[in-house]
Design goal:
Helices cover 73% and strands 1% of the residues. By secondary structure, the protein is mostly helical. The chain has a two-stranded antiparallel sheet. Strand 1 and strand 2 form a beta hairpin. Helix 5 packs across helix 23, helix 11 runs parallel beside helix 20 and helix 18 packs across helix 20. The protein is globular, with a radius of gyration of 24 Å.
């Protein structure tokens, strides 16, 4: 790409502003570990919500979303259910409230409040710490590779050099520079710097998203979009078969659909819904999303923060996705077809930026995408060291150290995690399969044990530990023997194995002590199978009330999923000029918002009165 001086100035100005804000606000972080990792629980929920939304807006995810929008059209809005995207709704409706009531610093520390500090509790505590650290390293390696490939496609400068026989190619150098710049202000200012810079980065990204959508709508007409896509591309209802035939329009897209395995979209949506319920009930994994919840001032703020995350993330993101998508369909697709050979659909986004965006807008979109990368990366860098410092060093090595010492250790931990992640990234070609094995196994083994920990009083630390291990084993077997089968189709088998490990580990060991369960139940007040503990707790706390909100929470989750989907489809309908769909989406958004206001927001309780 040939940058104009205006574009270069915008990009450099953005990077310098991020570093300045991170350092400027860093003094607040140095007073205590609570301040460093959780902002002292003094940060406003709306800042945390903007920060959380900013952290979820990553380059690789945006590139993938543009690709599936190009290929599947409006039906592509269902495919992110693979994660699922609506786990944020479960967190918003009730999970954030339960989690924040625990008054802990990390997900691993939460485990101790649930299972106690005996052998079973310690085993479950350690496996969560291992999960958090390894997954953070894996994601940093993923960010390293992703931002390197993106930067070398966009920037024109060759930064490669040799050290002895080792060749530092440009993408490694670009990635190392960007990761290092971000790490500097994250380490210096902890959660305060992360949130402050991410709020600024959110506004940069939003401006970029709106600008891209505006440019695309002026550049591409509705008639041109209609002519560039097959019949059914605008249909949003997931039919049993995808039934998109690109023959004669862009034949290679049919091969892409077959390769993705999304041809039976209706069956896939049903499987994603089944998996998504269990994954969402497990709660957030130990990472930056959980840390934002624990950083809020009150449980009510935690719920509002999680709701705001969806509200601020999806409309601008899908304005950008739809804008880049229609530019790709109308202007890039003919060039890709003419070029012949193997087509990489994931190059649509960088190609649009390189060849179609005008001076100024090019710099804005680059600053926005760099903001997306830096905010996501900084969130991981700040979250992972909390487990090393609070759950390993403070708990097992030096429990009586000063706050200054703990913060110094957190600096070392942050640098160490980033360095290890970069090393993994350098050798990604040789350890790619190992990285996939680690992340797939860890996440595959997470669900069963983490659902049971919330809803069943008899579940203990041994059950949690063996359930996680059984799930890891099941995911490993899947990776070794069925490497090309999508995880979603084998999820029921992995769930059965993880559940078997959880129940066997639980029933072959003693229950958690009543006092630990009573205090946990009194503070968190989850619904589920807590009857025996509720009866025992009444003897100590006679005014303790039982959580009877399961039906209301379930209804609100369904309403919330519809609400979230309107935030995704409305900007798409706007950009593609399907105004009937836009009007219906806005009406559904208004109706679901009113329902959530009166049936969720007005009924949130910070702490139950006893």
């Amino acid at each position: 790409m040939n940058f104009d001086i205006i574009d270069i100035s915008i990009i450099i100005g953005y990077i310098l502003l991020s570093i300045f804000i991170g350092f400027w606000i860093s003094k607040r972080a140095s007073t205590s570990l609570q301040n460093y990792f959780l902002g002292g629980n003094k940060l406003k929920w709306y800042y945390l919500g903007l920060s959380n939304g900013s952290g979820m807006f990553d380059i690789s995810g945006t590139t993938w979303t543009v690709t599936i929008f190009f290929v599947y059209g409006l039906k592509s809005v269902w495919i992110p259910w693979l994660w699922p995207v609506w786990n944020q709704i479960f967190i918003m409706i009730f999970m954030a409230i339960w989690l924040r009531r625990s008054n802990v610093m990390t997900g691993a520390e939460w485990i101790i409040t649930r299972f106690g500090d005996q052998k079973g509790g310690k085993l479950s505590h350690i496996i969560v710490v291992v999960f958090a650290i390894i997954s953070a390293i894996g994601f940093i390696a993923y960010f390293f590779v992703g931002i390197g490939k993106f930067a070398v496609t966009i920037f024109p400068w060759d930064l490669s050099f040799y050290v002895g026989s080792f060749h530092f190619i440009s993408e490694y150098v670009y990635a190392t520079i960007l990761l290092s710049l971000t790490t500097i202000y994250v380490i210096k200012g902890g959660m305060y710097s992360v949130v402050a810079t991410e709020v600024m980065q959110f506004f940069v990204m939003t401006i970029a998203c709106i600008a891209v959508a505006w440019f695309a709508m002026n550049k591409v007409s509705a008639e041109e979009i209609n002519a560039a896509v097959p019949v059914g591309w605008f249909d949003i209802i997931p039919s049993w078969k995808t039934s998109l035939d690109w023959t004669g329009i862009f034949d290679q897209v049919n091969d892409k659909i077959a390769q993705d395995g999304f041809g039976m979209l209706g069956a896939l949506v049903m499987m994603m819904f089944f998996k998504g319920i269990f994954s969402s009930l497990a709660g957030p994994v130990p990472g930056y999303d959980m840390q934002r919840v624990l950083s809020t001032q009150t449980p009510r703020d935690a719920a509002k923060m999680s709701g705001l995350t969806s509200l601020v993330l999806y409309p601008p993101r899908y304005l950008m996705v739809a804008g880049l998508g229609i530019l790709g369909l109308v202007l890039v697709a003919p060039m890709m077809k003419a070029g012949g050979g193997e087509i990489d659909f994931e190059k649509i986004l960088p190609y649009v930026i390189n060849n179609l965006l005008p001076v100024g807008l090019k710099g804005i979109i680059m600053a926005g995408l760099l903001a997306a990368f830096m905010s996501t990366f900084s969130a991981f860098v700040n979250a992972a060291p909390a487990y090393i410092v609070n759950d390993l060093y403070k708990k097992y090595i030096n429990p009586n150290a000063t706050s200054k010492k703990y913060i110094q250790i957190s600096y070392i931990a942050s640098i160490g995690i980033v360095v290890v992640g970069i090393i993994f990234g350098f050798f990604s070609a040789s350890i790619n399969s190992l990285t996939l094995w680690i992340t797939s196994s860890l996440y595959g083994g997470y669900v069963a044990a983490n659902v049971l920990k919330w809803v069943w009083w008899r579940f203990n630390g041994y059950g949690y530990f063996w359930g996680m291990l059984a799930g890891l084993l099941a995911s490993t077997l899947k990776f070794l023997f069925f490497p090309h089968t999508p995880d979603i189709y084998l999820f029921p088998l992995i769930l059965v194995m993880a559940s078997a490990g959880s129940f066997l580990g639980c029933f072959l060991s003693k229950p958690v002590d009543d006092e630990i369960l009573i205090e946990f139940y009194k503070n968190v007040r989850p619904w589920g199978w807590w009857g025996p503990i509720h009866k025992k707790a009444l003897k100590k706390y006679p005014n303790l009330t039982k959580n009877k909100d399961l039906a209301r929470d379930s209804f609100n989750v369904v309403v919330g999923i519809v609400w979230q989907m309107t935030l995704i489809v409305a900007p798409i309908y706007l950009v593609v000029r399907h105004y009937n769909g836009l009007i219906i989406s806005l009406i559904l958004f208004a109706v679901t918002s009113v329902i959530l206001k009166f049936n969720w927001l007005d009924k949130i309780k910070d702490y139950e009165e006893i």
